Amino acid sequence: xxxxxxxxxxxxxxxxxxxxxxxxxxxxxxxxxxxxxxxxxxxxxxxxxxxxxxxxxxxxxxxxxxxxxxxxxxxxxxxxxxxxxxxxxxxxxxxxxx
Length: 98
What we know:
Elements: H1 2-18, H2 20-44, H3 49-55, E1 64-68, E2 73-78, E3 81-89, E4 93-96
Antiparallel strand pairs: 1-2, 2-3, 3-4
């Protein structure tokens, strides 16, 4: 058992080092995807809130998904990162805010 652990552990460490950039970027992807897709679902496609909340639901839950309907502004927060999306118009659709 110790031999297997001594073989697997260095492999995991090497993999984590090799994928360090992707692992560092992952927390921001969850909230960015959710904000953008929810905005598009609500304001571009015109679906109801309940449907769009189910549409953007992920295996990892969001801590915040907030809609400001009059301004057509979406805020999503998950894994400690917050992203916002806003509807620009019928031709442009939604985009993430910097």
